[in-house]
Amino acid sequence: MARIEGVPAKQAGIVAKFAYWMCKRRLGRVILPIRINAHHPRILRAMAGMEMGQEAAKSVPAALKTLAQVKVAMMIGCPF
After folding, report:
1. Which residues contact 19 (CB under 8 A, 6 or more apart)?
2. Could you tell me the pTM of the whole model?
3. Sign of the C-alpha dihedral computed for residues 23, 29, 32 and 37 taken in this order
4. For 6-65, what is each residue's pLDDT tens digit?
């Protein structure tokens, strides 16, 4: 349970609405970290840039990246 409520889609700005749309398209729903980071558009853009950079990195095979993400999520108890 997050201590901060996420920004609802109706109150979101243009950057957040775009992030919500992309997240929903890729994951099927808008996850809470995106909603929370939507409180500050510059942080949301920075987070999106980091995610796109990590996804674009070609030094590690995609399957290995996915396995690492799952392992880390399990280690820290992340529900995503």
Report:
1. 34, 38, 44, 48
2. 0.68
3. positive
4. 898 899 889 999 999 998 998 899 988 899 999 999 999 999 899 888 888 888 888 888
Q: What share of the chain is helix, strand, coil (3-state, %, to 5)?
A: 70, 0, 30
Where are the chain's structural domains? 9-76
Element (H, E) at 26: helix 14-27
Cα–Cα distance for residue pair 40/42, rounded to 1 Å: 6
Q: Which residues contact 4 (CB under 8 A, 6 or more apart)?
A: 36, 39
* Residues near 73 by beta carbon (within 8 Å), at least 6 away in sequence: 80
In angstroms, the CA 29 to CA 52 distance is 18
**Distance between CA atoms of 68 and 54, rounded to whole angstroms?**
12
* Best CA proximity match to 34, nearest among 18, 13, 54, 19: 19
